Amino acid sequence: MKYKxxxxxxxxxxxxxxxxxxGPFTVDMYLASLPQIAVFFGTxxxxxxxxxxxxxxxxGLGQLIMxxxxxxxxxxxxxxxxxxxxxxxxxxxxxxxxxxWFICLRFIQGVAxxxxxxxxxxxxxxxxxxxxxxxxxxxxxxxxxxxxxxxPTLGSAVMSYSSWGSVFLFLGALGIALTAITLGGLKESLxxxxxxxxxxxTFIKNYNSLFRERSFMGYxxxxxxxxxxxxxYVAGTPFIYQNLYGVSPQMFxxxxxLNGLAIIAGSQFVKLLAGRVTESxxxxxxxxxxxxxxxxxxxVVLAHGALSAMFISIFLFAFSIGIIGPIxxxxxMESQGHIAGSASAVLGSLQFALGAVTSPLVGIAxxxxxxxxxxxxxxxSVLSIAxxxxxxxxxxxxxxxxxxxxxxx
Length: 409
Hints:
- The protein contains 15 helices and no strands.
- The protein is mainly α.
C-alpha cells in the first residue's frame, strides 16, 4: 500500500503534538501546587510527591498497553477511550476526598495520557516513510518540546486565580478538547487489513520480536539511555544552579527554558539537513556531540568551573538530544509498520524506565554536590555509544550490510 504525505504537515503536526504534550502537561502543570495539596490533605511532602511518581509510572506502563491495543483495534478507538478516561480522572483528582485517592487517580491519569504519547508516534509511522518521517518527527519534536517549557508557568497562572484543583479542571478541559479533535479532526490511519490479531499470544509475540531485533533495540536503547540523561538534568540542575552557583529561581527558569530551546534547535537542525545528509551520519554526529558535551559537564563539575561553562556544556548536550531523538525514532520504526504501536510503546517506556533510574542517582551525595550529576550524565553518553557499537554496528557486521531500517534510504 502506498502512503501519501499529509498535505498540511504543520496543522497535522500541531494536532499530534497536542496529544504528545498531554504527558508533560500531566506531569509538570501541577508542580507549583504541591505545597497547597499537602496542606489541603494534611499530609507530608513525600506523600504528595508520590502522586508524581505514580503519574510517571502510569505514563510508562500505559504505553506498553496502549501501543499494542492501537495495533489491534486501530488508532482512534483506544485514543478516544483514553481521552474519556483522562477527563474523568482529571476531574476526580480535582475533587479527590483523600491523598490516597489522589495518588491512585494520578496513576490512572498517567495511563490515560500515555495513549497520546504512544499513538501519536504510531500515526506518524502509518503516514510517513524515510526522510519524510525524519522531517516530520523533527517538526513534531520542536512543537512538543514547547509543552515542558510552558506547562509549569501555565499551572502557576491558573493557580493565581483559583485553588490547586483548578489545575486539574483545566487538564480535564484539555482532555475534552482532545476528545473533540479525535472525533472530528483525526482520521483512522491504520487500515483494518493491516491490524494484528487481538489476542494475548499476539501481544507477547510482538514484544518478543521487538526485543530480539538488534537494530530496533539498538536505536531504542540509545534513545532511552540519552533521554535518561535528560531526566538526570531535570532532577539535578535545580540544586546545582541554585545551591552551588547561587542562581535565583527566576534565572534558573530562564536557563531551564534555554536548554529546552536547545532540544528544539537540534530537531530543527535535523529537519534542515534531512535528505542532504544521511540519517546514520547525523545520528553518529549527535552521539559525538553528546559524548563531548557530557565529558565537558563532568570536567566542569570536578574542576568547580564557572556557571557559563556548565550552562554551555548542558546546552550542547540538550542540542544532541534534539538530533538523536527524531533520527533514532525514524531508524527504529522504519521496519515496524505492522506493529508500530508496540514499537512506539517500547521507545517511550524505555525513556521513563531508565529515567526512573538516573533521577534519584543525581542526589545520592546530597544537595550540595554536583559530582553524581556529572558522572551520571557522562555515563549515559558512554552507554549509548556502547549500545550503538554492539547492537547497531555489530548487527551490520553480522548481516554483512545495513540494518533493515536503513535499507530504503
